[in-house]
Amino acid sequence: MDGKYTVNEVEERSNVPASTLRQWERRYGFPKPERSASGYRLYSERDLEQISTMKQHIEDGVPASRAAELVKRTRVAPQGVRSLGKLQNELFAALEALDDVHADQILSEAHALHPVETIMFSVIQPTMTMIGQRWHDGLLDISTEHFASNYIHGRLRALFNLSANVPGARKIVVACAPGDQHELGALVLAIMLRRNAYRVYYLGANTPLSDLNDMAQRVEAAAVMISASAPHIAQTLEAEQDYLKKMSLPIIFGGNLFEQMPELATQLGGHFLGNDITEVIGQLNQMLERVTS
């Protein structure tokens, strides 16, 4: 018999209530503790490890039913953990082959092994960069690029919806500039902001600055973050910069356009903090602390 921890000991070690453990067992068939001669549940070291993994998945925004599937799947997985690079290469190959079922399996495996941030930055983003580069080089047709982008967009949208807004938190409006249809970077930013305890209003692609201004005022946003990818969008932003001046709150610009033209952010009355999302959020925290202090 491998079971050696009572339910109370598991609750103390994992910080998962006994009632939740029994609910998981009843609903998802996980965990599966042994029973003592007196009928008490006894959990093994492996059970404790998997309970902690289940808890981490849920904290990362994975629904409990899916988290249980991921944990149970890893119980019968072959020995050896595949590297992030291998997962990323397999995800690219699956999307290039238009195989969304295999792509789902790869990302499920990734979620079973890594936190959401690692998956976004080390699996999803490199995959999309590779797809974009191969399309640019003429090695991938536009329909395949659209298929891959829409698939990733759906997965990111699901992560965004699973990342709960924090009541009473600072409010941030995130949008793509007028004429900009490339929203994956902005969506990753919105997910990360939610995971860093901001209340996020995500407006998506091709957002008119007049509407953006109205939204920021209506929700009393602490800051607005605007993503722009292509050079031609600079002209639109310059032509409509009066709307930006009316906002009277911090405006953070990002995306490839501002990577190439960082001085444009200052000309428009805003800030370019780089395109490393983790660093951007850290600088945003400091900026808003100065504004409110």
Could you walk me through the main structural features you see in this protein, from its secondary elements to its overall organization?
The mean pLDDT is 87. The longest helix has 21 residues, at 116-136. It is built from 15 helices and 7 strands. With 293 residues, the chain is an alpha/beta fold. β3 (171-176), α9 (184-195) and β4 (199-204) form a beta-alpha-beta unit. α3 (45-59) packs antiparallel against α4 (64-75), α5 (84-96) crosses α7 and α8 packs parallel to α9. The strands form 2 sheets. It has a 5-stranded parallel beta sheet with strand order 4-3-5-6-7, with helices on both faces.
Keywords:
7 strands; 293 residues; alpha/beta; 5-stranded parallel beta sheet; two-stranded antiparallel sheet
H-E order: HHEEHHHHHHEHEHEHHEHHEH
Measured as a percent range, the helix fraction is 55-70%
Q: Which overall shape is indicated by the principal axes computed on the Cα atoms?
A: globular
Span between termini? 59 Å
Largest sheet: 5 strands, parallel
Give the percentage of residues in beta strands: 5-15%
Oligomeric status: single chain
Query: Pairing-aware structural class of the strands and helices?
Result: alpha/beta
In which order are the strands of the major sheet placed? 4-3-5-6-7
Per DSSP E runs of 2 or more residues, the count of β-strands stands at 7
Overall pLDDT metric: 87
Taking pLDDT < 50 over at least 5 consecutive residues as the criterion, the unreliable ranges are: none
Number of helical regions: 15
Radius of gyration: 23 Å
